[in-house]
Structure formats: structure tokens, C-alpha cells
Amino acid sequence: MAKARSINNKGFTLVEVMISLITFAVLTIIFGATVPLAKQTAHMNGQYAQAISLCQHKIDQLRAVGYGRINYTELSDAGIIDDIPTTSPFSFKEVDQVENYLPQPTATLNVESLGPNQLKVTAAITWRTTIYSTKTSTASLTAIITNVE
User: Which end of the chain is more exposed for a tag (fewer CB within 10 A), N or C?
Assistant: First the structure.
């Protein structure tokens, strides 16, 4: 009588190896496709953070100037707004060199009276998301400045 041989195969079959390679390839392709999107999103978030920071800086400058001095002459002399335009909405693109931070920006400061002792000021920046794109993004901050005297 012949003895039955015990077969003890260790390792993976060809089918198992192929399935794991296909799974690895699919996951690599999915991950590779998300990298450019993540890079673009990080760039866009950086632009928004910069724009919000510039708007906050402008609001802080106006608060430091005070209610009674928020007019074209005082703001222009203090270097807070550009020389042109001379009426609200003012521009602050040149004085803050916004074009160094964002592509093709417009930076405006709108001042409107809410009453005898209150001003509503809105700092807004609009820019192109990239130099060659037609898409734009906007960030703005609004504050109420009151006469505390």
C-alpha cells in the first residue's frame, strides 16, 4: 500500500497575489488622483486666510483712527487708503500692496453712516483664484465703529 503524502503548501496562490496587486493599484490610483485636489485646496485656503488677514488689518486700522477721523482726507494722510477714489468705496490695494499676496486683486473699503454716532465699515477683497483663471473669490469683513466721546 502506498503511503499518502501530506501536502503542506505554504505561501500564496497566483490568484491571491493578483487580487492583492489589483487592489493596491486601484488604491494607489485613487490616492494619486486626490493629491492635486488637496494641493489646490490648500492653496485656496491660504489665499482666503491672507485675504481675511488683510481685511482684519484694515478694520483694526480704522478702529485705531477713531470715529471722528474716518474721512477721505484723514485716511489718505494716514496711509490707510489709496489716493483714488476720493469717495466711498475707497481702495486700499496700493497702500497695502495687496497684489503681492493675491493675484489680480481689488481691495475696497466701504464706509456708510448708520446714524449720528455709528459707521458701518466693510473691507472687501476680490481676487482671481489663479493668474490665468477667470474664477474669482471674495473675502470681506464688516464692523460697526461708534463715537464713544
Answer: N
**Cell digits of residue 144:** 460697526
Q: pLDDT by residue (tens digit) across 85-132?
A: 998 899 999 998 999 989 989 999 999 998 888 999 999 999 988 777
DSSP per residue, the chain: -PPPPPP---S--HHHHHHHHHHHHHHHHHHHHHHHHHHHHHHHHHHHHHHHHHHHHHHHHHHHH-GGG-SHHHHHHTTSS-SS-SSSSEE-TTTTTGGGTSSS-EEEEEEEEEETTEEEEEEEEEEESSTT---EEEEEEEEEEE---
Q: The C-alpha cell of 147 is what?
A: 463715537
Q: How far is CA 30 from CA 17, 19, 20, 84, 98, in A?
A: 20, 17, 15, 51, 37
Q: Using CA atoms, how far apart are residues 119 and 114, in angstroms rounded to an integer?
A: 6
Question: How far apart are alpha carbons 124 and 139 in whole angstroms?
Answer: 6
Q: Are 123 and 59 in contact (CB under 8 A)?
A: yes
Does the pLDDT at position 40 exceed 90? Answer: no
